[in-house]
Amino acid sequence: MTDSALPASLARARERLSQALKEAGRAKDSAHLLAVSKTKPPAMIRQAWEHGQRAFGENYLQEALEKQAELADLTDIEWHFIGPLQSNKTRAVAEHFDWMHSVDRLKIAARLSEQRPDHLAPLNLCLQVNISREDSKSGVMPEEAEALAMEIAKLPNVRLRGLMAIPAPAATREAQREPLAALRELLAALQQALPQAPLDTLSMGMSDDLEAAVLEGATLVRLGTAIFGARDTR
Ligand SMILES: *Cc1c(COP(=O)(O)O)cnc(C)c1O
Fold first, then answer.
1. In-domain check, residue 234
2. Is residue 140 part of a domain?
3. What is the pTM for the complete model shown?
4. How far apart are CA 149 and CA 134, in angstroms?
5. Nearest atom, ligand 1, residue 207 CA
6. I need a labelling partner for 233 at 20 to 30 A (CA). Which of 113, 114, 150, 165 fits?
7. Rounded Cα gap, residues 46 and 10, in angstroms
8. Is residue 38 part of a domain?
9. Whose C-alpha lies nearest to ligand 1, atom 10?
10. For residue range 33-88, what is the model confidence (pLDDT) as tens digits?
11. In a domain, 153, yes or no
Protein backbone atom coordinates (compact mmCIF):
# COMPACT_ATOMS: atom_id res chain seq x y z
CA MET A 1 0.00 0.00 0.00
CA THR A 2 1.47 3.31 -1.03
CA ASP A 3 -0.26 6.57 -0.33
CA SER A 4 -0.99 9.20 -2.93
CA ALA A 5 -0.87 11.92 -0.25
CA LEU A 6 2.56 11.00 1.07
CA PRO A 7 4.85 12.89 -1.33
CA ALA A 8 2.93 16.11 -0.67
CA SER A 9 2.86 15.54 3.12
CA LEU A 10 6.59 14.91 3.13
CA ALA A 11 7.22 18.05 1.11
CA ARG A 12 5.00 20.03 3.50
CA ALA A 13 6.85 18.64 6.52
CA ARG A 14 10.18 19.70 5.01
CA GLU A 15 8.81 23.12 4.23
CA ARG A 16 7.46 23.43 7.78
CA LEU A 17 10.87 22.55 9.20
CA SER A 18 12.76 24.97 6.99
CA GLN A 19 10.25 27.74 7.74
CA ALA A 20 10.59 27.10 11.47
CA LEU A 21 14.39 27.20 11.21
CA LYS A 22 14.22 30.45 9.30
CA GLU A 23 11.89 32.04 11.87
CA ALA A 24 14.18 30.88 14.65
CA GLY A 25 17.16 32.49 12.86
CA ARG A 26 18.88 29.12 12.55
CA ALA A 27 20.92 27.59 9.74
CA LYS A 28 19.01 25.60 7.10
CA ASP A 29 20.55 22.24 7.88
CA SER A 30 20.79 22.62 11.66
CA ALA A 31 17.82 20.30 12.30
CA HIS A 32 16.82 17.10 10.56
CA LEU A 33 13.62 15.22 9.99
CA LEU A 34 13.08 11.80 11.54
CA ALA A 35 10.08 10.15 9.86
CA VAL A 36 8.19 8.19 12.52
CA SER A 37 6.72 5.23 10.67
CA LYS A 38 5.24 3.14 13.51
CA THR A 39 2.10 1.22 12.46
CA LYS A 40 2.66 2.24 8.81
CA PRO A 41 3.39 -0.39 6.14
CA PRO A 42 6.84 -0.93 4.61
CA ALA A 43 5.57 0.27 1.24
CA MET A 44 5.03 3.74 2.69
CA ILE A 45 8.55 3.77 4.12
CA ARG A 46 9.89 2.77 0.71
CA GLN A 47 7.85 5.54 -0.88
CA ALA A 48 9.24 8.15 1.53
CA TRP A 49 12.74 6.79 0.86
CA GLU A 50 12.16 7.18 -2.89
CA HIS A 51 11.35 10.83 -2.15
CA GLY A 52 14.66 11.29 -0.37
CA GLN A 53 13.84 10.54 3.27
CA ARG A 54 16.55 8.46 4.94
CA ALA A 55 15.97 8.49 8.73
CA PHE A 56 13.02 6.50 10.10
CA GLY A 57 11.81 6.06 13.69
CA GLU A 58 10.07 2.95 14.99
CA ASN A 59 8.52 2.24 18.42
CA TYR A 60 7.67 -1.46 18.42
CA LEU A 61 10.57 -3.85 18.08
CA GLN A 62 8.91 -6.83 16.41
CA GLU A 63 7.11 -4.62 13.91
CA ALA A 64 10.33 -2.77 13.14
CA LEU A 65 12.33 -5.93 12.54
CA GLU A 66 9.75 -7.22 10.09
CA LYS A 67 9.78 -3.98 8.14
CA GLN A 68 13.58 -3.84 8.11
CA ALA A 69 13.68 -7.34 6.61
CA GLU A 70 11.33 -6.26 3.83
CA LEU A 71 13.32 -3.11 3.17
CA ALA A 72 16.80 -4.66 3.33
CA ASP A 73 17.58 -3.43 -0.20
CA LEU A 74 17.39 0.25 0.91
CA THR A 75 21.07 0.47 1.70
CA ASP A 76 21.59 3.94 3.12
CA ILE A 77 18.47 3.94 5.27
CA GLU A 78 18.96 4.97 8.93
CA TRP A 79 16.87 3.28 11.65
CA HIS A 80 16.08 4.95 14.97
CA PHE A 81 14.44 3.09 17.85
CA ILE A 82 12.27 5.56 19.80
CA GLY A 83 9.96 3.39 21.92
CA PRO A 84 10.22 1.84 25.37
CA LEU A 85 12.49 -1.20 25.50
CA GLN A 86 12.69 -4.08 27.98
CA SER A 87 16.22 -5.03 28.93
CA ASN A 88 15.78 -8.58 27.54
CA LYS A 89 15.15 -7.09 24.07
CA THR A 90 18.30 -5.00 23.74
CA ARG A 91 20.19 -7.37 21.44
CA ALA A 92 17.94 -6.80 18.43
CA VAL A 93 18.28 -3.03 18.84
CA ALA A 94 22.07 -3.34 19.16
CA GLU A 95 22.18 -5.37 15.96
CA HIS A 96 19.60 -3.64 13.77
CA PHE A 97 19.50 0.07 14.58
CA ASP A 98 21.71 3.13 14.12
CA TRP A 99 20.17 5.17 16.94
CA MET A 100 18.32 4.48 20.18
CA HIS A 101 16.48 7.50 21.64
CA SER A 102 14.79 6.09 24.71
CA VAL A 103 17.59 5.07 27.08
CA ASP A 104 16.58 5.83 30.65
CA ARG A 105 18.75 3.48 32.72
CA LEU A 106 22.32 2.26 32.77
CA LYS A 107 21.38 -1.40 32.41
CA ILE A 108 19.89 -0.82 28.95
CA ALA A 109 22.88 1.22 27.75
CA ALA A 110 25.39 -1.31 29.13
CA ARG A 111 23.67 -4.19 27.38
CA LEU A 112 23.45 -2.25 24.11
CA SER A 113 27.18 -1.54 24.30
CA GLU A 114 28.02 -5.14 25.11
CA GLN A 115 25.79 -6.50 22.34
CA ARG A 116 26.73 -4.05 19.61
CA PRO A 117 28.39 -6.08 16.83
CA ASP A 118 32.05 -5.24 16.19
CA HIS A 119 31.56 -4.60 12.48
CA LEU A 120 29.10 -1.77 13.16
CA ALA A 121 29.86 1.79 14.24
CA PRO A 122 28.99 2.55 17.89
CA LEU A 123 25.26 2.81 18.47
CA ASN A 124 24.14 6.44 18.85
CA LEU A 125 22.17 7.01 22.06
CA CYS A 126 19.93 9.69 23.47
CA LEU A 127 18.82 9.75 27.09
CA GLN A 128 15.08 10.05 27.37
CA VAL A 129 14.22 12.64 30.01
CA ASN A 130 10.86 12.82 31.78
CA ILE A 131 10.96 16.56 31.32
CA SER A 132 7.35 17.22 32.39
CA ARG A 133 7.74 14.93 35.42
CA GLU A 134 4.72 12.81 34.57
CA ASP A 135 4.09 9.66 36.62
CA SER A 136 3.01 7.78 33.52
CA LYS A 137 6.02 8.60 31.33
CA SER A 138 9.27 6.78 31.01
CA GLY A 139 12.51 8.72 31.06
CA VAL A 140 15.08 9.66 33.62
CA MET A 141 14.20 12.56 35.93
CA PRO A 142 16.04 15.75 34.93
CA GLU A 143 18.13 15.85 38.13
CA GLU A 144 19.33 12.28 37.52
CA ALA A 145 20.36 12.77 33.91
CA GLU A 146 23.90 13.96 34.52
CA ALA A 147 24.94 11.03 36.73
CA LEU A 148 23.50 8.58 34.21
CA ALA A 149 25.21 10.36 31.30
CA MET A 150 28.57 10.14 33.09
CA GLU A 151 28.26 6.37 33.36
CA ILE A 152 27.01 5.87 29.80
CA ALA A 153 29.83 8.00 28.39
CA LYS A 154 32.29 5.35 29.64
CA LEU A 155 30.78 2.54 27.58
CA PRO A 156 32.86 1.58 24.52
CA ASN A 157 30.33 0.63 21.83
CA VAL A 158 27.73 3.32 22.25
CA ARG A 159 28.04 7.03 21.66
CA LEU A 160 26.01 9.36 23.83
CA ARG A 161 24.69 12.02 21.43
CA GLY A 162 22.13 13.93 23.49
CA LEU A 163 18.66 14.07 24.99
CA MET A 164 15.17 13.11 23.94
CA ALA A 165 11.82 14.06 25.48
CA ILE A 166 8.10 13.77 24.92
CA PRO A 167 6.69 16.72 26.88
CA ALA A 168 3.14 16.75 28.22
CA PRO A 169 0.75 18.29 25.66
CA ALA A 170 0.27 22.04 26.04
CA ALA A 171 -2.29 24.38 24.56
CA THR A 172 -0.17 27.34 23.50
CA ARG A 173 3.21 27.76 21.86
CA GLU A 174 4.51 29.52 24.96
CA ALA A 175 3.43 26.63 27.19
CA GLN A 176 4.96 24.16 24.73
CA ARG A 177 8.28 25.95 24.87
CA GLU A 178 8.79 25.66 28.62
CA PRO A 179 9.72 21.95 28.87
CA LEU A 180 11.59 22.13 25.55
CA ALA A 181 13.70 24.99 26.92
CA ALA A 182 14.36 22.92 30.04
CA LEU A 183 15.65 20.07 27.87
CA ARG A 184 17.91 22.48 25.97
CA GLU A 185 19.33 23.80 29.26
CA LEU A 186 19.88 20.28 30.52
CA LEU A 187 21.86 19.42 27.39
CA ALA A 188 23.98 22.54 27.89
CA ALA A 189 24.73 21.40 31.45
CA LEU A 190 25.74 17.94 30.20
CA GLN A 191 28.00 19.51 27.58
CA GLN A 192 29.77 21.34 30.42
CA ALA A 193 30.04 18.23 32.56
CA LEU A 194 31.21 15.99 29.69
CA PRO A 195 33.23 18.21 27.34
CA GLN A 196 34.71 15.24 25.49
CA ALA A 197 31.35 13.60 24.63
CA PRO A 198 29.78 14.29 21.19
CA LEU A 199 26.61 15.79 22.69
CA ASP A 200 25.09 17.47 19.64
CA THR A 201 21.52 16.16 19.60
CA LEU A 202 18.22 17.45 20.95
CA SER A 203 15.60 14.94 19.84
CA MET A 204 12.39 16.87 20.39
CA GLY A 205 9.45 18.23 18.41
CA MET A 206 6.59 16.15 17.02
CA SER A 207 3.73 16.96 14.66
CA ASP A 208 2.04 19.25 17.21
CA ASP A 209 5.03 21.15 18.60
CA LEU A 210 7.65 21.24 15.85
CA GLU A 211 7.79 25.05 15.71
CA ALA A 212 8.23 25.40 19.48
CA ALA A 213 10.92 22.70 19.45
CA VAL A 214 12.87 24.38 16.66
CA LEU A 215 12.72 27.68 18.53
CA GLU A 216 14.27 25.89 21.51
CA GLY A 217 17.09 24.29 19.55
CA ALA A 218 15.81 20.88 18.40
CA THR A 219 18.26 19.15 16.05
CA LEU A 220 16.17 16.07 15.28
CA VAL A 221 12.39 16.46 15.00
CA ARG A 222 10.30 13.30 15.08
CA LEU A 223 7.30 13.61 12.77
CA GLY A 224 4.78 10.83 12.33
CA THR A 225 1.27 12.04 11.64
CA ALA A 226 2.42 15.08 9.65
CA ILE A 227 4.20 12.81 7.16
CA PHE A 228 2.29 9.52 7.13
CA GLY A 229 -1.18 10.65 8.24
CA ALA A 230 -3.18 9.61 11.31
CA ARG A 231 -2.45 6.22 12.83
CA ASP A 232 -5.06 3.56 13.53
CA THR A 233 -5.23 3.13 17.27
CA ARG A 234 -3.72 -0.13 18.36
C1 LIG B 1 4.68 8.45 17.70
C2 LIG B 1 5.85 9.22 18.15
C3 LIG B 1 6.25 10.39 17.48
C4 LIG B 1 5.48 11.00 16.33
O5 LIG B 1 4.32 11.61 16.79
P6 LIG B 1 3.38 12.47 15.82
O7 LIG B 1 2.55 13.26 16.76
O8 LIG B 1 2.59 11.49 15.03
O9 LIG B 1 4.25 13.30 14.97
C10 LIG B 1 7.41 11.02 17.91
N11 LIG B 1 8.14 10.55 18.93
C12 LIG B 1 7.79 9.42 19.60
C13 LIG B 1 8.64 8.95 20.72
C14 LIG B 1 6.63 8.74 19.24
O15 LIG B 1 6.30 7.64 19.92
1. no
2. yes
3. 0.97
4. 21
5. 9
6. 165
7. 13
8. yes
9. 222
10. 999 999 999 999 999 999 999 999 999 999 999 999 999 999 899 999 999 999 99
11. yes
